[in-house]
Amino acid sequence: MALDVRELECFLVLSEELHFGRTAERLYLSQSRVSQLLQSLERRIGGPLFERTSRRVALTPLGKEFLTSLRPAYAALERVVENARQYAAAVKGTLRIGFQGAASDEILRAVSAFQSRNPNCLINVCELPLNDPSGGLRRRMIDAAVVLLPVAEDDLVVGPVFSRHPQTLAVSQRHRLAARTSIDAEELAGETLIAYSGPAPGYWRQAQAPTQTPAGALIHRGPEVATLQEGLSLIAADRGAMLICESTAANNHRADITTVPLTGFPDSALALVWRRGEETPSIRAFAEHLS
């Protein structure tokens, strides 16, 4: 049986006013229309909700029971509608998202889903320097960034973490480990890892090019680069090896470089990051598509 919200609203107002004339005024209806709505609701329920005489209007026992149940349900319905209205009104304008390297399929799907659901908000994406994951945020060039973890600055909020992949070691085809099917982190003792230069925090650069194995053996710090392509060129020239996540390795295949699965280091992962205290409905809505 379909519900008529207008009938419910009429019942709630009449239960407060207990007067058909005042109820009609509040609802901008005629008294006859109020009576019609009430009679329709009573037929739908199957019993009288009000006792009506020439002198008074009062709730029946059925009406009192119905009112007790209806009030919280109607209030909840109003909240649902209001939340949807606020959501639709707030997610608008332009949302600027930065990302390091190439946009993965997960990022592109999130962008497409967000744009379909929020047609009043235009989403713009831009590439960030690989060696400067948070600079665009601090210069307010973007509203949020998809960056390679870890992120540990107090002024940034780390949102949903996604795209977890095992690490691989990228080496030249001539490297001593190139023919291996897998490598343990302790076997990097004495090896040289190419590192990232630039403004990225020291802890972040250390995570991408560790100087020790988990057991504490020394790993040499090699030349520093600003981009992945610079790093791949140095690998091909036998200047060192490089930690690269499994998905990045698959998307950057070169005939003169091989990637070997690496165990013993944490998986690579991406996260959506934004400035602390500046979360917006648009950022929250986009984050939902990355969760």
TrEMBL record:
Transcription regulation as a keyword?
A: yes
Gene Ontology molecular function, alphabetical: DNA binding
Q: Where is the HTH lysR-type domain?
A: 3-60
What InterPro entries does the entry give?
LysR_HTH_N, LysR_subst-bd, WH-like_DNA-bd_sf, WH_DNA-bd_sf
What keywords sit in the KW lines?
Answer: DNA-binding, Transcription, Transcription regulation
- Does the keyword NADP belong to this entry? no
Recorded hits in CDD domains, A to Z, give: PBP2_LTTR_aromatics_like
Task: Write out the similarity annotation.
Answer: Belongs to the LysR transcriptional regulatory family.
Sorted alphabetically, which PANTHER family does this protein's record hold? Answer: HCA OPERON TRANSCRIPTIONAL ACTIVATOR HCAR, TRANSCRIPTIONAL DUAL REGULATOR HCAR-RELATED
The protein in question is named DNA-binding transcriptional LysR family regulator
Which species does the entry assign this protein to? Kribbella aluminosa
